[in-house]
Amino acid sequence: MPVFVYRAADRRGQTIDGVMEAPDARAVVERLQRDAYFPIRVAPHAERRGWFSLGGSSRVGQRDLLAFTQQLATLFEAGLPLDRALSILEELAPTARVKAIVADLLVSVRGGSSLSEALSKHHPRPFSRLYINMIRAGERGGVLEIALRRLAEFLEARAAFADAVKTALAYPLVLSAVGIGAIVFLMTFVIPRFATIFADLGQAVPLPTQILLWVSAGFQAYWWVGVIVILAGVLAWRVWTGSPQGMIRWDQMLLGLPLIGSLALKIETARFARTLGTMLKSGVPVMSALAVVGDTMTNQAIGRAVDRLADGVKRGGTIAAGMQAEGQFPSLAIHMVRVGEETGRLEDMLLKVAETFEGDVNNELKRVLGLLQPAIILSLGVLVAFIVVAMMLAIFSINEIPL
């Protein structure tokens, strides 16, 4: 849907700037007039970045969303009314885009809408269903400040877990990239110059050197074939996973891989437990919470399992029974959820499940990467050593050329 920026005045003559999604400019004008504002200027908004995540996606960036939620929770806990808190956040906005979004929320709230209505009506895409449902539950229970604080804690824990995974993977990826880049440089720039020298001498070179020269010549002549193969593979993968069935099969295949599958399952279990536990603790009904949790799963196979689990709960079953029937969730998680249901402390137990599996993921990542890093270094070292030895053998063979 198109996005429009606007400037409007209220009955006291004060002007505000904002942004709104609407079918056309007339719809923006009508909406502002219903909220008792007088439009001054309405124009299409071309900017799609800033507070929105990179790559053209319209979702709010995780860091910006976390900062917004933490600040709003702090101001609300201090006793400020919602419109005053949003007004302060508008002044503190670090960018024009953030300022425009907060200003739009402020217009809706001052026009009589609740915060959840403002989030869902004006920005249905940037703020997730989970976010809106938790705000709505806090409003219905009269504990919006608690819901905001729990949302902030949830987003902070999720961001910390994601950062831990990214940090653990960063070093092996950088190491592999640098090593592969060095080998490509040797094969495309260094070896061809030695090949010219050896060809001018007309001297037979040792077998390792011949192999190295053949590989280098093939790489230079047919590098484009490798690029085409890689691009074709990526395109085929995108087309395959672009369909719902293809994506599910891909995710099922990932879960079946040794080591990677176990790690992916633990990550999804931790996400499932933390999201569901946070929503239930905030007062969201269990069926509404399960409907949202299924959408938050990165792995579509687990997402479908959560949807089927929700159907079982709707028919009168328990969450633990549904998890066991699916056969994809870890046994420890199932037993912990069952204990939580039996003791009436399901929300707390789900959060405990999340902490347990997040810790397992961190420990397993450290263990796997502790083995992977030496393997990467050894593999790259063997390749570089082969290149060096092959070239040194060729250089030594030059001494055998009769003068």
Q: Order of SSEs, N→C?
A: EEHEHHHHHHHHHHHHHH
Oligomerization state: single chain
Largest sheet: 3 strands, antiparallel
Task: Give the beta-strand count.
Answer: 3
Q: What percent of residues adopt helix (DSSP H or I)?
A: over 70%
Shape annotation: extended
Low-confidence stretches: 47-59
Secondary structure: elements and pairs:
Layout: E1 3-9, E2 15-21, H1 25-34, E3 38-44, H2 62-77, H3 82-92, H4 96-110, H5 115-122, H6 129-140, H7 144-201, H8 207-242, H9 244-256, H10 260-281, H11 286-296, H12 300-314, H13 319-326, H14 331-343, H15 346-398
Antiparallel strand pairs: 1-2, 1-3
Helix pairs in contact: 2-3, 2-7, 3-4, 4-5, 5-6, 6-7, 7-8, 7-10, 7-15, 8-9, 8-15, 9-10, 10-11, 10-15, 11-12, 12-13, 13-14, 14-15
List the main descriptive attributes of the protein structure presented here:
extended; 403 residues; three-stranded antiparallel β-sheet; single chain; mainly alpha
Account of the 3D structure:
It is built from 15 helices and 3 strands. The termini are far apart. The longest helix has 58 residues, at 144-201. Strands 2-1-3 form a 3-stranded antiparallel β-sheet. Strand 1 (3-9) and strand 2 form a beta hairpin. It is mainly alpha-helical and 403 residues long. Helix 10 packs antiparallel against helix 15 (346-398).
